[in-house]
Amino acid sequence: MWYNNYMEDFNSKRVPLAERMRPTSFEEFVGQEHIARKGSLFRRAIETGTLGSAIFFGPPGTGKTTLANIISNLDNGIFKKLNAVSSGVADAKKIIEEAKKDKSLFSRQTYLLLDECHRWSKAQSDCILAAVEDGTIVFIGTTTENPYHSMTPAIVSRSKVFEFKPLEKEDIKKALVRAINDKEKGLGQFNVKISDEALNHLAWAAGGDLRSAYTSLELATLTTKPNENGEIVIDISVAEDCVQQKAFSLDETKYYDYLSAFCKSIRGSDPDAALFYSSRLIEAGVDPQIIARRLIAHCSEDIGMADSNALLLATCALYSIKNLGVPEALLNLSHAIVYACTAEKSNSVYLAMSKAQNAAKNFPDAEAPFHLRNHPSINDNKKIKYKYPHDYGGWVKQQYLPDELKNERFYIPSQNGKEKNLKLKKDN
After folding, report:
1. Which domains does the chain have, with CATH numbers?
2. In terms of pTM, does the model score above 0.70?
């Protein structure tokens, strides 16, 4: 009875766990070490008050809004939040007018957080440009879309872009354990006992999204009644039920083994094996985008110029997963996998890249030939002049590599697929 009464009271005033556990300082923040670690460019900019406007770009639940809140708290600024889907020019202008007063009267900086900022039109974006330029507001946009492709260039050029990555499983586990033990903001009052297997599954199934992991943990806690000892026991079956996904029946070692087998099956031209390993990984909860990205890499590493269409299909498969969604896009992914497996193979591009990288490291001071430089002296008649290939029918023989490397060959076509008929003009 006590439990039912407690839950009734708890639910009546409950704020979602993800919101309650939102960090308010860098010490509580997990993940995104490349951005938020002590001594990073971002932290130094915050500490010196020189950050300026910024765009946080990355998947959901990776800390974009949280980090924006931390910035505002540290600076004792005024934090205004808008969503690009539901707000417009009038909302922004109102915030700007208030920001001017707060800055002149109280010397307080206004931060404008715009969620889903890629959804704003050019006209909407233009309305804040002047305020961003003169420092009236510090603009912080958060978006899941690449801002260089989806946002107004004028806003992007006035902002520093920080890319957020999906959180590592260990970071998510750390945050979940903190929530379980936190009696003030978390679930500490419930006396939760979670198995290592269940904790691993919740962290894994979240796919790098901490908000999703918090939601699953909270659901598991609130729907599981305490045992005779007053403990809420979350085992693997409870975790599976809450995320609606079976636990990965492989340990992490086997996960990497399957991923390795998938890659080697592509290289070995076995579509049956590649389809099996990719399907097994996806059934276990692996994001299909991971499979598609690996496929794209191998289309250049193992197929290359022998059949360049493989790279196009693999890229289209990733696009389909992002824009069409699963399960429909899994057919596109399978299409690309089969094509890659049955395509002719060549690693000539991979070998060429490796050779070129080694040469770049070994000859850091090698200079471009005089005739290829940006502004060669027109008065030095002793130097070789640049020959414009189009004046010679599209190609003319001349030196392009530095003198130290002029006889080097990085790219050597294989005798496979379309590459075997490839004729390099420099060999003529």
Report:
1. 32-163 (3.40.50.300), 168-243 (1.10.8.60), 252-342 (1.20.272.10), 369-427 (no CATH)
2. no
